[in-house]
Structures are given as structure tokens and as C-alpha cells.
Specification:
Layout (H helix, E strand, L loop, with lengths): L1 H6 L31 H12 L5 H13 L3 H14 L5 H12 L3 H14 L4 H13 L3 H11 L6 H14 L3 H14 L7 H10 L3 H8 L12 H9 L3 H13 L3 H14 L4 H13 L3 H14 L4 H13 L3 H14 L4 H13 L3 H14 L4 H10 L1
């Protein structure tokens, strides 16, 4: 068993990019003027861009920082690079779609939001944002079903009602439009955007007193929806996110001790963040603190039990320590959570092969090759299994 383990060198920590593939072509960043920005934000942007990002995480962090500071063109470019490097991560096409929506490049926005939904089916925020884009593209037949799905989630329900009100008003179905606008206002009375179309619906229904009352306080405050990915991007730009960005900068310069120090500070400020826990675990592993790293990998799984990445990294950490039975349990859970993720199949197949279960390994590696025909590592492992 030890000889087999020595022959099958386990990969380094996973960040969900396929190993041994030709690097994708990356887009250059547009020129950005930061002179009038907050000095702390400007410094972060300069340092991150100067660090010449190479990983999806680094490009994604830069893109998120651009996004929350409303620099949508460089945000779209940086997030596109993150997506090219990490095509199985749904966050990048979602945030890219959000940037493109702000840029009014609606056809592109719709394509990326659809991709996010392919990667994370039924995600409420992606469903609602795609519905908004379809409304803006003048495609009510696509927007309607998406908005109906948005009613099922508490975080998107008010915005879905507002969108359905707009749809019904365009069809001149005034009673239905009024009902949806009323529901949106009942859920978010601070929103002022629904008041004007609600007043119009009341006027068309002949309810003039209600129309005048609705017009009082009409304005442009939109109906909000729960948007975890954008909220996470805002967190990355403040508080613990600043330390996480500094950790990325330090890692890009090869300063692993500084990266570890910054990740410890970030995790102390945001201890319930599973991504920070995983980043801290990876940094601890690089510094030879294996026991502490394993504890952080376990904590990441506890905080994000539905994350295939968290289970995958825990499984690999256990396998490197020779705890193969526990490693297989974690990797099998990763595959259960993301059955179409080639990298999860590859890592499970690798540890099955290391455990002497060549037939079981072959089944996983065959599937990994089918999911990612260009992946060289999966083909090499499959050949070893055969």
C-alpha cells in the first residue's frame, strides 16, 4: 500500500481549476482611474492589479472589488478571467452577468446568468436577476416563468412581485398588476419605485383616490432582493475582506508567511466564513502546520456542509495523512454534491486507486474523462487504473 501511495502523488490543495491543462487566454484589464476614489480602495486596486493575478481566486477578488466600486468594465474583464480559469464555479458568471447588466450589455448578461443557473440550478438570486434582464430585453415570455419561480423564495419574493406587476401592466391587466405591486410594497414599504406604476394601475381601474395616495412618496428606491454573491463581494472589500485581499497579494508575491498572517486576521474577524477557513487551511498546509490545517478544513465543512469544494479539500488533506477511509468518505460526499464536476471525480478516483480499489477508481476516472475530455491528469490516472 505504501509503495502504491508513493507512486500516486496526491495533488496539492484544490481551488477547482483543472490541472495540467493549457492555460486559457486571459483578457487585459481596461485602464481605470482611481485618483478620485477612497485612498484605501484605490490602494487595494493598485496592489491587486500590480500583483499580476494568475489564479481564479485572485482574478475573482479583483473583479469583485471593481464591481462593488461600480467599475463595471474592469469588473467584467477580471471576472471573465476568473471564469476562464475556474469554469465550474457559478459565482463568476453570475457576478459577470451582474456587471454586464449594469453596462446594459443585456444579451451577454443573459448568457452568463444562464450559465450560472446551469452550474447552480434553481439559485434564487440568479433566477431573479435573469428575470430582470429578460424583462429589460423585452422578452416577457422568458421573464414570466422566472419571476414565478422567484415567488417561492422569501429573499426574492418582493422583487418577483414587482417584476410580475410590470409584466401585467404591459399586458394592461390592471387588477393583476395592482395586486403584485401591492404585494411588493407590503414586503418592502421603504421601496418607492412600485408607487408610480401602482398609481397608474389604480387610475386605469377607476380608483382615483387610491391612485393619488399611491403617488405620494413615489420615487426611485428599488425593490431589493437577497443577493448572497454580491453581498459577499461587498464583504470582501471591507473588514475581513481587506485582510483576505492582502493575503492574495502576499501569496502572489510568494510571501506565504504574510499570507498566513493576513488570513488569520481575516478569519478572526469573520469566523463563520467557510471560504476564509479553507484559505487559512491551505496557508497552514503550505507552512507545514498540518494538524492546524486539518482542523480548519473540518471547520470549513461544518460551516458549509453543501460545498463540494470543502469536502474535496478535506478529503485530500486526510488522504495526504494516510487516513484513506475518512478521505474516501469526504470525497464521495463531494461527488454526491457535484456529480458533474470532473475534478471531484478525478480526486475520488485517485484516492480509490491509492486504496487499491482499481475497478472502483476506473469507474470514477472514466466519468471524469467523459466530463472533461481535455483533462490530461484524468487520462493518466485512468491509464494507471487500467
Amino acid at each position: 500500500m505504501r509503495g502504491r501511495a508513493a507512486a500516486l502523488v496526491l495533488p496539492a490543495l484544490v481551488t477547482l481549476h483543472a490541472a495540467a491543462q493549457a492555460p486559457p487566454a486571459l483578457s487585459p484589464l481596461p485602464e481605470v482611474s482611481v485618483e478620485r476614489m477612497d485612498p484605501a480602495v484605490a490602494r487595494q486596486l493598485r496592489e491587486l492589479a500590480a500583483a499580476a493575478p494568475e489564479s481564479a481566486a485572485a482574478w475573482g477578488a479583483l473583479g469583485q472589488l471593481y464591481l462593488v466600486n461600480e467599475l463595471y468594465e474592469p469588473a467584467e474583464s477580471a471576472l471573465g478571467n476568473a471564469q476562464a480559469l475556474e469554469p465550474a464555479e457559478p459565482r463568476w458568471p453570475y457576478l459577470r452577468g451582474a456587471a454586464l447588466q449594469e453596462l446594459r450589455r443585456l444579451d451577454e448578461a443573459a448568457a452568463h446568468l444562464e450559465r450560472a443557473l446551469e452550474l447552480r440550478a434553481g439559485d434564487p438570486a440568479a433566477t431573479l436577476r435573469l428575470a430582470q434582464v429578460e424583462l429589460e430585453r423585452g422578452r416577457p415570455e422568458r421573464a414570466g416563468p422566472l419571476l414565478q419561480r422567484g415567488l417561492a423564495d422569501a429573499g426574492t419574493r418582493a422583487a418577483a412581485h414587482f417584476g410580475l406587476g410590470r409584466l401585467e401592466a404591459a399586458r394592461r391587466r390592471w387588477a393583476e398588476a395592482a395586486r403584485h405591486f401591492e404585494a411588493a410594497l407590503a414586503a418592502q414599504p421603504q421601496a418607492t419605485a412600485p408607487r408610480h406604476p401602482l398609481a397608474l394601475a389604480y387610475r386605469e381601474l377607476g380608483e382615483l383616490d387610491r391612485a393619488r395616495a399611491a403617488l405620494r412618496g413615489a420615487g426611485s428606491v428599488p425593490v431589493q432582493f437577497s443577493d448572497p454573491w454580491v453581498e459577499e463581494a461587498r464583504r470582501r472589500a471591507t473588514g475581513s475582506g481587506v485582510h483576505a485581499l492582502r493575503a492574495l497579494e502576499a501569496a502572489a508575491r510568494g510571501n506565504d508567511p504574510r499570507a498566513l498572517e493576513e488570513l488569520r486576521r481575516a478569519a478572526a474577524l469573520d469566523p463563520a466564513n467557510p471560504e476564509l477557513r479553507q484559505g487559512l487551511a491551505e496557508a497552514l498546509e503550505r507552512q507545514g502546520e498540518g494538524g492546524a490545517a486539518l482542523a480548519e478544513f473540518r471547520e470549513a465543512v461544518r460551516l458549509a456542509p453543501d460545498s463540494p469544494l470543502a469536502h474535496m479539500n478535506l478529503g485530500l488533506a486526510l488522504a495526504r495523512r494516510g487516513e484513506l477511509a475518512a478521505a474516501l468518505g469526504a470525497l464521495e460526499r463531494s461527488v454526491e454534491l457535484a456529480p458533474d464536476l470532473a475534478l471531484a471525480r478525478l480526486r475520488l478516483g485517485t484516492v480509490l486507486l491509492q486504496s487499491g480499489r482499481a475497478a472502483d477508481a476506473l469507474a470514477q476516472l472514466e466519468r471524469a474523462v467523459a466530463l472533461d475530455p481535455a483533462g490530461r491528469e484524468a487520462r493518466l490516472r485512468r491509464a494507471r487504473a487500467l
